Amino acid sequence: MAILIDPPLFEAHGRRWSHLVSDTDLEELHAFARGCGLPARGFEGDHYDVPEERYAAVVAAGARPTDVRTLLRALVASGLRLPKRRGDTGVARVPDVHLPDGTVADIDLVRSGREVEPRRTFAAMAFVRDAAGDHVVVHSVRRDQWGPPGGWREAGESVRENAVRELREETGLVVAPETLVPVGYERFRVTATGPLWRPGQDLLQLYAVDLPTVRPAFGERLDGVDGCRWVSWAELEALCAGEFYWPILAAVLGPDPAGW
Question: What is the pTM of this model?
């Protein structure tokens, strides 16, 4: 097992950066980063970004210097690489998630201000925030859990229409499709297929929407949802922090988000 770091050659935000990876295990990588005092926000799904001024200290702590190509080959060979489009930000890979229909998948959580390919998108979810900064959660009967409103896409509807319909059906709140802001996506790497899984569709689109009023009243909702609440950030964390999607929800909605 080894922790690898490449030279600080990549320029962003007025600084130069290195990439820090493990060739075996993400937990090993996280433990090493904590020991070096690297902030959690520096993790991008499969590596930590390390500013040039920290490079020498990280090498002194035990990271093995290597060139960019060798580091990338080691990351790919480890199976830990999280592919993403240029400009997207990897948040986490959550392994072995069991879905209600029996589907099992490793799920990549990726931040992005761009929508993903509609032909690959099977569902959408909306992170809804009111004018006071509170959040909407609904309780799914089928999953027996609280979370943001969302669900499977129906035939003939666009991905945005999918998100708007699910929000209306689960909360009674109505928003215009153009108010939805793309903030990321979930990519499902399926290892066991359940009866509801759609071959060729592996993406769930994530949107955010800010409402202009404080805690607007909920309307009628479908039978699949038996609870709907406005909650504070602390309440949202208490309800959802154990769910697989929590890392990206926290990255988007948390106390110090990068912005929608």
Answer: 0.85
Q: String of b and e for 102-131 (b: at least 16 CB within 10 Å)?
A: ebbbebbbbbbeebbeeeebbbbbbbbbbe
| Burial (Cβ within 10 Å: 0-12, 13-18, ≥19) of residue 47 | buried
Find the domain containing 227 and state its range: 89-253
Instruction: Encode 141-173: b = buried (16+ Cβ within 10 Å), e = exposed.
Output: eeeeebbbbbbebeeeeebbebbbbbbbbbbeb
Domain assignment present for residue 258? The answer is no
Q: Cα separation of 179 and 197, whole Å? A: 29
Q: Assess whether 55 and 153 both reside in one domain.
A: no
- Does 249 score more than 50 pLDDT? yes
Residues 182 and 38: their CA atoms lie apart, in Å, by: 28
**Distances in whole angstroms, Cα of residue 201 to Cα of each of 50, 118, 124, 192, 196:** 35, 9, 12, 14, 11
Q: How many residues does the chain have?
A: 260
**For 191-208, what is the mean pLDDT?**
93
Q: What is the pLDDT of residues 124-144, one digit of tens each?
A: 999 999 999 999 999 988 888
Contact 182, 113 (CB under 8 A): yes
Give CA–CA dist 257/249, Å, rounded: 10
Mean pLDDT of the chain: 93
